[in-house]
Amino acid sequence: MARSRTAGPGHGHTTDRVADSGTGRATTCPQGAAMGIVRVVEWKLVCTPEEADAAVRRAFSQLELGPEGEPGRIVGRTKRSVLKNRWAADVTVEIQPLGADTMASCTVEMLGNKHFAVLGDLAEAVGDGVFDDRGVAPALERLGRASRLFGLKEVRHLRNLLRASEGVLELGQGQYEGKQGLVVLTTERLFFLEKSLGSETVEEFPLRVITSMSVNKARTGETLKIFASGNHAEIKSMMHGQADAVVRRFHSQNQPAPHSATAVAPQQVDDPIAQLERLGQLRDKGLVSTEEFEAKKAELLGRL
């Protein structure tokens, strides 16, 4: 189980590190020196790498970031804005194929905590039409209206946390360790997301370490029980049907593929009587001599 704290809205998976503001390399700085925080978000785009590169460069130009760099790598810099309470930021987007689609790895390095505001501006300039929904909309539609409204800020921030390789299977709303937030089952993990002003809490369970899930039902709602690597966790106060839906999708996602019947079927052993009949036919056709037939007959009868 992993916990992380970040902040702001966006479209992909997020990793953070503290870096030298000039190089982007993780480092320690002398006491009192300014330290830039680097945050990386993965976007999955439903277009070719060439189209993605062109769209990102147009967005950089629209935002006056002065795009530079070779194809597949766009580099720019935002100016400090007193009105928006933002420091200057170095922004890098690296484009690479992802199956039939494209992954854009976006890195923002700046002081303060406005990284996702910068990424939000960039995403808006790129255009929502090229972003892969990753299954968020249909999963959200299956929630009740109350859950959709309650978890609105978590849903808006959800795409910051999704890896380019994963999709959303089910969503729910519940309480974990006294915090109310969003329950997310993806193709790779189950995580709980609680977002408040300026911070977030993420509790993550990779699917590969989850041994089982179960549901306790009560009049007040459902409790999702998660067993992973010897640990036990509970997400409480989920609305009726939501924990059930998560458990069903978890089991269907982790159900082993059926083995091919031909691959596992044991090799059949020929029946000695059937072999004798075939040998008799071969003898009658002159393909096997009488001596050979009698020798083989004795061998086969010895098996009975």
UniProtKB/TrEMBL annotation:
Residues 274-301 form the SHOCT domain. Residues 162-247 form the YokE-like PH domain. Signal peptide: none annotated. InterPro entries: SHOCT (IPR018649), YokE-like_PH (IPR039519). It comes from the Bacteria. Residues 1-27 are annotated as: Disordered. It holds the Pfam family SHOCT. This is SHOCT domain-containing protein.
